[in-house]
């Protein structure tokens, strides 16, 4: 017992002070893209052609963050002169059209629904549905329960049953085999309920976009309240989205 207490004392307090204190991520992290609107048209076209997700709108010099998998090809190819990725992990939006960005995003807090803040601001129970995800989106959600992020200190928890949940968090491209299970889970959540699409797969099909085996995005099946881009989204992207949208 004394050994455990000594160990605990030596470990100290490891929980992040975010959002009270800012966190700077490693330089290799790819967050919100910065887009140079003065980049030469031929370079923009080259990047658009090389993009594996066809996420670059070369005419308007914009990136669709619902499709983007943050592979960095456009940044490498343009040597940062067209696209460079910032360390800004605050990427969530409440409307799908906001995912198409020229380098900035509308404030999520201004677009949050006040009734959700009133209903779920003090207690939010989430049911995670992995609809054929590769497990990376799920792992980075799971990590929110660890002592560093300690999601429960904000009154946010994951629950086992959709009947105990206020919201579902959907990851993965929603394969044909998972569609019915997902829709049944959605139906089982009591109203008023919130739907969160997390990761490029659930936003657009991600790397599987266009395949007849997956859906073209969660919003094609059920109404979505919160879109969280990334492949996978960083745990801080999830945390920022949940705290900004519900608190
Ligand atoms: S980082 Fe996104 S926009 Fe750039 S090439 Fe990769 S998928 Fe396309
Ligand atoms: S968005 Fe990327 S990380 Fe998440 S499930 Fe799809 S492929 Fe995996």
Provide structural commentary.
The protein has 247 residues and is an alpha/beta fold. It has a domain of 138 residues: Rossmann fold (3-Layer(aba) Sandwich). The chain has 8 helices and 10 strands. The longest helix is centred in the last third of the chain and has 13 residues. The structure holds iron/sulfur cluster (2 copies). One iron/sulfur cluster binds next to helix 5 and helix 7.
List the helices and strands and how they pair.
Layout: H1 2-11, E1 33-35, H2 41-50, E2 56-57, E3 62-64, H3 73-77, E4 83-85, E5 100-101, H4 114-120, E6 124-130, H5 136-142, E7 156-158, E8 167-171, H6 176-188, E9 194-198, H7 200-204, E10 226-228, H8 235-246
Parallel strand pairs: 6-7, 6-8, 8-9, 9-10
Antiparallel strand pairs: 1-4, 2-3, 3-5
The structure holds iron/sulfur cluster (2 copies).
Main structural class: alpha/beta
Proportion of strand residues: 5-15%
Question: Helical percent range?
Answer: 25-40%
Return the CATH topology of one domain: Rossmann fold
Features:
247 residues; alpha/beta; Rossmann fold; 5-stranded parallel beta sheet; 3-stranded antiparallel beta sheet; globular
Short characterization:
The chain has 247 residues and is of the alpha/beta class.
